[in-house]
Give the backbone structure.
Amino acid sequence: MRRVLATDFGIWPMLQHLERASDQMYASSDFWARLANYILLYDQIVIPTGNLQVVAVLRLMLGEDMFDELLRTKVIVLARFDQWFGYVGNGAGLGFFQIHDGPNQSSNNPNLGTAFFKPLDRAIHDTLSVTNPPSLGKRRTELSNLLLDNVIQLPTQSFADNLRDETYRDVLGSPYLREFLALKNAGRSLDQLIGINPNQVVVFSPHVPAEQGDSIEIRSVLRVAFENFLLAIGGHIDATEITGDEATLTVLRAKGQRLGYAAEGNTAFTKIQKISGVPDLGVAFAAKRLTPAQLLDLRSSRHAQSMRDWFVQGSPHDTADEIVAKYVESVGKQSVVELLPAKLLRFAATTGIGALEPISGTLVSAADTFLLSKWFPTRSPRLFLRQAKVVMGNTPVVQAPKMKGRNLNTPCSCGSGKKYKKCCGCL
């Protein structure tokens, strides 16, 4: 099974403007394309989450029916953490924490910021209350039950017990990081780095770029911790690959982990489509030329499963060009069946195996696809690409769902207790 940990779809804790991560994801054609490719290329997509904010993105991209189906059938799995980590001043160093609503914040008011750390039912309630598309009445109940049944809880505490030691070992074992940290911290323990006040906690989120005045040494330690946290999740769920943005997962790649960056398979898939004359399916989904229903049909075909199995057979260290070369080689070896005349294929289809359809102009391609799969069930993207080419040739352009504006009178998700329009909404 190809099981991917899609860390690029993870929405991580942020102290302000939590809505920006999901808004940017939804607005990015690259994320639409990635999601489509993951659905086609992997048997299971595991998305790490704390406050379930990514649910809104998936619902808007996929539509309600497809979102429900992919979650219910475990094609998409939401893996939830309920703690986060930061670097604490006064010699405490790296550690995990939780944030809860303050005494002035009513527990009944949804708070997207503290939903990361609440029990699952409360996190679901808060997220569905403040994210789009709106979910009311029966649909709210359906979604809540679906998420309660299909979100798995990660053993965050066991990750916390090991993360500190693993991170410090990586930092101390890296000549580059040791030299970098020694610029201002010569002779200091990793628990006592310069650049933090005694009562301060520095939190890392890949959604938030470094700001002027940040301690780059502390941020470096937190980045190593973040990638080790991802590796812990990947090991727990038995992921075969981890995906991420190009700028992330550098530590995992440096450690030589198979669970590094799964860009090669995706790049190879794009190149294979190009040389086969098939429009890029991920790009087509992002441009709304491939509907969610068509994407699901393509994914569910036996040819798509053969394609996924074919990708699994390769070496995990193959580059995209090496994968493409293997595909070209396999296509170059035409089978005996492919060289048979169409008349014989029609005869075999209608007498030897059973009637596929009345003999017509379309029977030749139908027989070809069926017989090649039946008699020569080689695992390859080839037959899937033929199927995708037919689908793309008969696809109408559809309109994307529009992101509706946020209710400005709801409490701001940053936890200030103010209305959104009087807090982050005015920035």
Notes: The longest strand covers residues 44-49. The mean pLDDT is 78. The longest helix spans residues 216-236.
